[in-house]
UniProtKB/TrEMBL annotation:
The lineage of its organism: Bacteria, Pseudomonadati, Pseudomonadota, Gammaproteobacteria, Lysobacterales. Belongs to the uracil-DNA glycosylase (UDG) superfamily. Type 4 (UDGa) family. SMART domains: UDG, UreE_C. This is Type-4 uracil-DNA glycosylase. One of its GO terms (biological process) is DNA repair. Residues 301-461 form the Uracil-DNA glycosylase-like domain. The keyword rRNA-binding does not apply. SUPFAM superfamilies: Uracil-DNA glycosylase-like (SSF52141). Keywords: 4Fe-4S, DNA damage, DNA repair, Hydrolase, Iron, Iron-sulfur, Metal-binding. Gene3D superfamilies: Uracil-DNA glycosylase-like domain (3.40.470.10). Pfam families: DUF4130 (PF13566), UDG (PF03167).
Length: 468
């Protein structure tokens, strides 16, 4: 009988080295006492056989690395037996779901993984002030030796602070640059409280929802054995006891009236300039609410019938619009006109404008490349759009692109999911959003461009004759 002692019973590399030596010497698993006395029980191993070891599946090595952190003392022997079988005619061992060794190994792996999940969820660091600054210390009692595999998670999560994780089997320490491990510690080595825990308990109590309380499910996910290390645990019995009366009080309380949804355009209407549509156009030429006027050639105001029944809202002028002072006259405008024609909608019946009235660009040699207006620039310009709509009083709005859609519907609107349908607005109007023609021009795939163009025509065809 050969006795094998491991310095670190959970270390995969050390186990693999010893197991390989036994395997090369042809030692049967029944002749090995793992963690027995002496490196090999004082008995010299037979000379290694001059053979090449058969390849072992990577899945077994990964499984073994996890199982070795389990607390079952049989783990070294069972894994060596599985290794022996894999290299002695049972290559498909891991695929035999009913094999006792395979079942045992996977059961151990699940228990280790669950223990690691609980450690990530229920570790609570407490601040300790030292001469070198704050160090955060946590105490945890895992069922298995999982500190080595879980510590990198805390390094990623708390990279910017120094911490120590203490367990009975081993400890982990992060100094902000290096992760190191040490021997096990005791509960007395860790702090029991810190200055922030009262604040944390107040927060926990405030978010506790009695209507969603399921005690059995809570105890399954947060077993009582972990409570002693959780600062919020002392609140749980009282919160559970008071859950039913609190829930009844919530039911009996008068329902609150939901606040009326106000779109960005409605908010801008309060600050909209006064005057006729022609007066607005003149005033907009002198707008200095943001810096877009400085490099732009001119303000590009809306264009169309003063009492149009449909207002089409684009995003912002392009290079040619900036030079001409009119919306939708460049390549995107030409594509828009073509799509309107195929949809049977006369452009001269529409009032066409943009969310932003100045051309924002980035110089590239002699070219001026379009650049999207930021949120502040969009908000500064929205008062002009609100004033245009207020003077025209259309029955319907058509938004081209996400910028226009967000101005009308709000930031939660999802253009590609909600496009091509009329939606009622709080002010009684209806509105629809579709793709901006410039989006089609940017599509590199001709087939995708054709499909998107067909969708655009289909959406614009919803502007029926009775609307215009």
């Amino acid at each position: 009988m050969y006795g094998v002692v491991l310095d670190d019973a959970s270390d995969f590399d050390e186990w693999r080295t010893k197991a390989r030596a036994l395997l090369l010497a042809g030692v049967d698993p029944r002749d090995v006492a793992w963690q027995g006395e002496g490196l090999f029980g004082g008995v010299a191993l037979p000379s290694p056989r001059d053979i090449a070891l058969p390849a072992v599946p990577r899945t077994f090595l990964d499984l073994a690395a996890v199982v070795l952190t389990h607390s079952d003392e049989r783990r070294h022997a069972v894994l060596y037996r599985m290794l022996w079988r894999l290299t002695h005619g049972e290559k498909g061992l891991l695929s035999i779901a009913t094999d006792d060794d395979v079942i045992w190994a996977h059961t151990c792996a699940r228990q280790v993984n669950r223990d690691a999940h609980k450690m990530k969820a229920f570790v609570r660091f407490r601040e300790v002030t030292t001469e070198d600054g704050s160090v955060y210390v946590a105490w945890f009692e895992p069922a298995h030796d999982i500190v080595r595999c879980v510590a990198p998670f805390f390094v990623r999560r708390f990279t910017g602070m120094r911490w120590s994780l203490l367990t009975p089997s081993r400890t982990a320490h992060w100094d902000g640059a290096t992760l190191s491990f040490g021997p096990g510690a005791s509960r007395e080595d860790a702090p029991t409280d810190d200055a922030l825990e009262d604040l944390w308990r107040t927060y926990y109590a405030s978010i506790f929802n009695p209507a969603r309380l399921k005690v059995d499910a809570m105890r399954r996910e947060m077993p009582v054995k972990y409570w002693k290390n959780l600062p919020e645990a002392r609140l749980i019995p009282e919160l559970v006891r008071d859950a039913l009366p609190r829930m009844q009080a919530m039911v009996e309380k008068q329902a609150t009236v939901p606040r009326k949804k106000i779109t960005p355009l409605q908010k801008a209407a309060d600050d909209a300039p006064e005057g006729s549509l022609a007066a607005l156009r003149r005033q907009a030429q002198d707008c200095r609410a943001c810096d877009l006027w400085k490099p732009a050639t001119q303000t590009v105001f809306g264009e169309g019938p003063a009492h149009a029944r449909v207002v089409v809202i684009g995003e912002q002028p392009g290079d040619q619009e900036d030079l001409a002072g009119k919306p939708f006259v460049g390549p995107a405008g030409q594509l828009f006109d073509r799509a309107l024609g195929e949809a049977g909608v006369p452009r001269d019946k529409l009032y066409v404008t943009n969310t932003v009235k100045h051309f924002k660009f980035e110089p590239r040699g002699k070219m001026r490349l379009h650049k999207r207006a930021n949120a502040e620039e969009q908000a500064a310009c929205r008062r002009w759009l609100a004033a245009e709509i207020d003077r025209i009083r259309p029955g319907a709005l058509v938004c081209l692109g996400a910028m226009a859609a967000h101005a009308v519907f709000g930031a939660s609107f999802k253009l590609m999911e909600q496009r091509g349908q009329w939606i009622g607005l709080p002010d009684g109007r209806k509105a629809m959003a579709t793709m901006h023609p410039s989006y089609l021009l940017r599509l590199p795939d001709p087939a995708a461009r054709e499909r998107a163009y067909a969708d655009l025509v289909r959406d614009l065809s919803l502007i029926t004759p009775e609307l215009v």
